[in-house]
Amino acid sequence: MSDGHVLVARQLTKRFSPDRPPAVDGISLEVSRGEVLSIVGPNGAGKSTLLQMLLGILTPDSGTVRIFGVDIIRHRRRVAHLINYASTDLSLPYSLSVRENLEVFALVYNLPQPGQAVSEMMERFSLEPLAKTKVGRLSTGQIARLSLAKALISRPEILFLDEPTATLDPEASAEVRQLLLEQVRKERLGLVYTSHNMREVERLSDRILLIESGKSVACGTRDALYGLFDCDNLEAVFIRSVNQARQDRRRDENADK
Ligand SMILES: Nc1ncnc2c1ncn2[C@@H]1O[C@H](COP(=O)(O)OP(=O)(O)OP(=O)(O)O)[C@@H](O)[C@H]1O
Ligand SMILES: [Mg+2]
Questions:
Q1: pTM for this one?
Q2: How far is the CA of 90 from the centre of ligand 2 (A)?
Q3: For residue 33, pLDDT beyond 80
Q4: Cα(250) to centroid(ligand 2), Å
Q5: 14, 78, 86, 232: least buried by Cβ within 10 Å?
Q6: What is d(CA 185, CA 198) in angstroms, rounded to the nearest whole number?
């Protein structure tokens, strides 16, 4: 693409209920090849809703999402093979083994060499010792690894991850971060992800989008955000920016009364 962006979203808005404010309110963003964009904000800020619209599984009330220039809302089938998704909420077939799960997804994604793709992922995510274990018997951390393997088996150009390390212990989180970074660097994968772990976000992100009550508060590199909010760590940026956004919102609401 001429502008180098693999994903461009403009003015996305989604309201679930007429008597509540929009869950996502006029958010725009873009992602380049090999870039990690983190979406950060308080519980209920609209991160998962935003991710679902970027993925084309939730239709926005207004706004556009283009993946490699293709409108995902109108032509999802044309770009579906270029994107993939993993989340802690995603349920994988419980009665199938780890290997069978990957085999099913290799078929679903219509991969040219499914056996090879399954073996590669089993190795990369250290799943071989669990090959015959049924998903229902895996630990949360093991499920997280399998979800990532499932998401990467289709060799997506853009990967969306909703809190991929939320259920992992510190060592497993570090391992997943390392695997993701390798993928981003090696395959020039675009990664859009959410997390409440600010230290992780600092380490992993090229840029960070801060949202509060469905609205964009700030977007930029870690250092740009430090400068903007006069802080030296992301947790402090989070607290300061969210409080500031809430105060601004209350002031505007009172002015409207
Ligand atoms: N399917 C839905 N129907 C109605 N309301 C919804 C739906 N999904 C989300 N919401 C509402 O939209 C708002 C944003 O929710 P969302 O799940 O996007 O937040 P989040 O930033 O991902 O939060 P968390 O950090 O807790 O995961 C919340 O007020 C939530 O109650
Ligand atoms: Mg969420």
A1: 0.94
A2: 12
A3: yes
A4: 24
A5: 232
A6: 21
